[in-house]
Design a protein that fits this description.
The complex is a heterodimer of chains A (about 375) and B (about 220).
Chain A: E1 2-6, H1 11-23, E2 27-30, E3 43-47, H2 52-61, E4 66-70, H3 73-79, H4 83-86, H5 103-116, E5 121-128, E6 134-140, E7 149-155, H6 163-178, H7 183-191, E8 192-197, H8 202-210, E9 221-222, E10 227-228, H9 263-275, E11 279-287, E12 291-294, H10 306-324, E13 329-332, H11 333-336, H12 344-350, E14 355-361, H13 376-383
Parallel strand pairs in A: 7-8, 7-11, 11-14, 12-13
Antiparallel strand pairs in A: 1-3, 1-4, 2-3, 5-6, 6-8, 9-10, 12-14
Chain B: E1 3-5, H1 10-27, E2 34-47, E3 51-62, E4 65-79, E5 88-93, H2 101-112, E6 119-123, H3 135-152, E7 159-170, E8 177-187, E9 193-203, E10 207-215
Antiparallel strand pairs in B: 1-2, 2-3, 3-4, 4-5, 6-7, 7-8, 8-9, 9-10
Helix pairs in contact in B: 1-3
Classes of the chains: A alpha/beta (about 375), B alpha+beta (about 220).
InterPro entries (chain A): CARBOXYPEPT_ZN_1, M14A-like_propep, M14A_act_pep, Peptidase_M14
Subcellular location (chain A): Apical cell membrane
Cofactor (chain A): Zn(2+)
C-alpha cells in the first residue's frame, strides 16, 4: 500500500479525484471526506497495493501530479510496533509492557512469569492487605551454592503512581529476557538475588482504577468508616509521626494510628527485618518528580554513609540521563524535597541496609501522576 | 546581600515552579504551553519588614516541543506576613517565543464554528490520553492554572495541574471564548488533590484571563 500526496490544481481535477474515490477502494486520510477535496488543498490518500499501478496510470493520463508520501505502509506499521512484541519472548507471550494493567492482570502476570521462567523465578507470599488481598513478591535467583546478597525493590506504595508498578513489571521482563545474553545482567545474577514486589498497596491501586484515579493511600477505614486510608509511606517506624505528616485521616499524608499500624506496612517490614542481614540495597519506586532520593526525610542530619550513597546515586542519574536526556535531581529528601517521617526508605536504612533509595520517576509535573502510556517505554528504559 | 541556594534545593524549586506558573499565564495560549524544565541558579534575599526575595535563572520548555527551550530570569517577592497577597513576580525572557498565531487561530475558529457548546470530562483520561481536539483545551487550562498557582502559592507549596475534571464552554455574544473549568490541582508538600473551579476567557489577540475562580471542598470518598 502506498500513500499519495496530491494538490489538485483545477476544479476538474477535484471532480476526477472524487470520482476515483467512489469507484476504487481508496482510503482518504486527508481530508476525511471526498466532498471536502478542494483546489489547492493537500490531499493524502492511501492506495491499496493491488490498484497502485492503475491509480498511477490514471493520474498520469489526467495530468494530475502526485508525490508518493509513504512508499510502504506496512513497513511503517511494523516499525511502530514496540520491541517486546516483535521479538520472541519466553517471558510472557502477548503481555504488553507499554500499557497500564489492572491488578487482576498483574496477579495473572506473576503466575505466568513464574511458570515460564521457573528455573529463575519463584512467587512468594508476603502478607495480606487490609481488604484481605494477598501480597506476593517475585524472587529472581540463579541457582548457586554460594549465599547471595539481596536487592529488594517495591513499587506501587502510592496508588496513583501507575508508572511505578509498570516499571517493576518492565524490570522483571528485562532481566528475564536478557540474563543469558547480557553479560552485565548475568554477572549481576551470579552474585545477587532480586526480590521484586510489583504492587505494595494493592487495595489502593485497585481503588485508583475503579473509583478515584488520584487516590494515594491504602483503604483502611477510620472513624467508623467515615474516612479511609493511611499513607503507607508515613507509616513505617522511622521517627514515625514526627514531621511532614498529619494525624488527621482526611489528609493525604495521614500517618496512621501508630507505626506499622497497617497490615501492608507490617508485611513488608517483617520480611525485610528478617532478611536484613543479607539485604544490600533497598529500592522503592514512586512518581513523579524525577528524583533519586537518599535518607533522610525526617532530619537534615546526613546518614553515616552519605558520601557513598550520593556518589552511587549520581552515577545512576548520569546513566539515566545518557539514555534520553532526562534529568534527575539527586539528594536527601529533607533537602531537595520536603521533610517527612515514617518513610519506608528511611526505615530500611535505619535498620542497617546500607543502600537505600527512593526513585521518583517521570515526569516533572506536565502530566504528573497521569503519565501517558507512550512514556512508559522510555521511562522504563532509562531507569533500567 | 543575596544568599546562593542549591538549584536542587526543595525551596528553590518551589519558587521556580511558582515563577514558571506565572510566566505561563502571562505568555501562554491554547497553542503555547510552557513548563519549567530546570532551575539553573537561585539566590535569596531577606528584606526586613518586607519579605523574602528570590532571584532565579530558569529554563522553560514548550510542552508541544521538548527541544524548544527558552531561558528566563525572574524575581519573586513573597510578602511578609500577608497570606492573602500573591507574590510579586517579574521576569525577562531571553529571546523570542515561537509564534503560535496559526495554531491559536485554528483553535479559535474551530470553537467559534461549533454548533453546540463544547463539553468534556477527564482530560487526560486515566491512562494519560488526550485526544488531539482536546490538546488546546488542556493547554488553555494549564495556562489558566498558572494564575491560580500564582495567586495561591507560598514558599511551602508546589502546585501542578493534575487533571481537568470537567470543562464547559460558555456562550458569549462578543468575540471572546469562555470556558468554565473544574480542575484538580496537586500540591506536592501536603500531597493533596484540590478541586478548583475557574472561569477562563481567551481571545487570540488578548491573551488568557481568569475572571473568576473558587477553591472547592475536597471530595471525601467513603
Amino acid at each position: 500500500d502506498q500513500v499519495f500526496h496530491i494538490v489538485p490544481e483545477t476544479f476538474q481535477q477535484v471532480q476526477h479525484l472524487q470520482h476515483l474515490c467512489s469507484t476504487l477502494p481508496l482510503d482518504l486520510w486527508k481530508p476525511q471526506l471526498p466532498e471536502d477535496i478542494r483546489v489547492g488543498k493537500d490531499l493524502h490518500i492511501r492506495v491499496p497495493a493491488p490498484v497502485v499501478q492503475e491509480v498511477k496510470d490514471n493520474l498520469d493520463h489526467h495530468t494530475i501530479s502526485y508525490k508518493v508520501l509513504i512508499p510502504d505502509v506496512q513497513e511503517l506499521v511494523d516499525q511502530s510496533i514496540p520491541n517486546e512484541r516483535r521479538s520472541h519472548s519466553q517471558v510472557s507471550e502477548g503481555y504488553s509492557y507499554t500499557q497500564y494493567h489492572p491488578m487482576e492482570e498483574i496477579y495473572q502476570w506473576m503466575t505466568q512469569i513464574q511458570k515460564s521462567n521457573s528455573e529463575l523465578v519463584t512467587q512468594h507470599y508476603l502478607g495480606k492487605t487490609i481488604e484481605n488481598r494477598t501480597m506476593y513478591y517475585l524472587q529472581i535467583s540463579q541457582p548457586s551454592d554460594k549465599a547471595k546478597k539481596i536487592i529488594w525493590m517495591d513499587c506501587g506504595i502510592h496508588a496513583r503512581e501507575w508508572i511505578s508498578p509498570a516499571f517493576c513489571q518492565w524490570f522483571v521482563k528485562e532481566i528475564l529476557q536478557n540474563y543469558k545474553s547480557d553479560p552485565k545482567i548475568s554477572r549481576f545474577l551470579q552474585n545477587l538475588d532480586l526480590y521484586v514486589l510489583p504492587v505494595l498497596n494493592i487495595d489502593g491501586y485497585i481503588y485508583s482504577w475503579e473509583k478515584d484515579r488520584l487516590w494515594r493511600k491504602n483503604r483502611s477505614p477510620h472513624m467508623n468508616g467515615t474516612c479511609y486510608g493511611t499513607d503507607l509511606n508515613r507509616n513505617f517506624n522511622s521517627s514515625w509521626g514526627s514531621i511532614g505528616v498529619s494525624y488527621n485521616c482526611s489528609s493525604e499524608i495521614f500517618c496512621g494510628s501508630g507505626p506499622e499500624s497497617e497490615p501492608e506496612t507490617r508485611a513488608v517490614a517483617q520480611f525485610i527485618e528478617r532478611k536484613k542481614g543479607d539485604i544490600l540495597c533497598y529500592l522503592t519506586i514512586h512518581s513523579y518528580g524525577q528524583y533519586i532520593l537518599t535518607p533522610y526525610g525526617f532530619t537534615s542530619k546526613p546518614p553515616s554513609n552519605s558520601e557513598e550513597l550520593i556518589h552511587v546515586a549520581e552515577k545512576a542519574a548520569a546513566a539515566l540521563m545518557g539514555k534520553y536526556g532526562t534529568s534527575y535531581k539527586v539528594g536527601s529528601t529533607s533537602s531537595i524535597l520536603y521533610s517527612n517521617s515514617g518513610s519506608s526508605r528511611d526505615w530500611a536504612h535505619m535498620i542497617g541496609i546500607p543502600f537505600s533509595y527512593t526513585f521518583e520517576l517521570r515526569d516533572n509535573g506536565t502530566h504528573g501522576f497521569v503519565l501517558p502510556v507512550d512514556q512508559i517505554q522510555p521511562t522504563c528504559e532509562e531507569t533500567m | 546581600a543575596a544568599m546562593e541556594l542549591q538549584p536542587s534545593h526543595g525551596l528553590a524549586n518551589r519558587v521556580a515552579t511558582l515563577a514558571a506558573g506565572y510566566l505561563c499565564y502571562r505568555r501562554g495560549s491554547p497553542g503555547r504551553g510552557l513548563v519549567l524544565r530546570s532551575l539553573r541558579r537561585a539566590r535569596r534575599q531577606d528584606i526586613d519588614d518586607v519579605g523574602h526575595k528570590y532571584y532565579l535563572e530558569l529554563v522553560l520548555e514548550d510542552v508541544l516541543d521538548k527541544d524548544s527551550t527558552v531561558n528566563c530570569t525572574a524575581e519573586v517577592l513573597y510578602h511578609l506576613g500577608s497570606k492573602n497577597l500573591a507574590p510579586d513576580v517579574q521576569f525577562t525572557l531571553e529571546g523570542e517565543l515561537k509564534n503560535t498565531d496559526e495554531a491559536d487561530n485554528v483553535f479559535y475558529n474551530r470553537i467559534r464554528s461549533l454548533e453546540k457548546e463544547l463539553v468534556a470530562e477527564n482530560i487526560p483520561d486515566s491512562h494519560g490520553n488526550v485526544s488531539p481536539e482536546m490538546e488546546p483545551i488542556r493547554r488553555l487550562a494549564w495556562v489558566a492554572s498558572g494564575y491560580i498557582i500564582w495567586q495561591n502559592s507560598t514558599e511551602n507549596t508546589k502546585f501542578h495541574l493534575a487533571q481537568i475534571k470537567r470543562v464547559k464552554q460558555v456562550k458569549r455574544s462578543d468575540e471572546y471564548l469562555e470556558f468554565d473549568y473544574m480542575i484538580l490541582l496537586h500540591e506536592m508538600v501536603s500531597q493533596e488533590i484540590i478541586p478548583w473551579q475557574m472561569t477562563v476567557l481567551w481571545h487570540p489577540q488578548h491573551g488568557v484571563q481568569v475572571t473568576q475562580d473558587s477553591r472547592q471542598p475536597k471530595h471525601t470518598s467513603g
